Amino acid sequence: MADAAGRLTKLAEEVLGAPLPVRIRAWDRSESGPPGAPTLVIRHRRALRRLLFKPGELGLARAWVAGDLDIEGDLYAALDVLAGLIWERGTDAPKPQRAAVLRALARPEIRAAAREMLTLAGVPVPPAPPAEEVRRRRGPLHTLRRDKEAISHHYDVGNDFYALVLGPSMVYSCAYWGTAETAGSAAGSLEDAQRDKLDLICRKLGLQEGARLLDVGCGWGSMVLHAAREYGVRAVGITLSEEQATFARKRIAEAGLADRIEIRVQDYREIKDEPFDAISSIGMAEHVGRTQYAEYAAALYSLLKPGGRLLNHQIARRPVADEETYHVDEFIDRYVFPDGELAPLGRTVGQLEDAGFEVRDVEAIREHYALTLRSWVANLERHWDEAARLTSVGRARVWRLYMAACALSFERNRIGVNQVLAVRTPEPGASGVPLRAREWRSAASGA
Question: How far is 366 from 373, CA to CA, in rounded Å?
Answer without folding.
Answer: 11
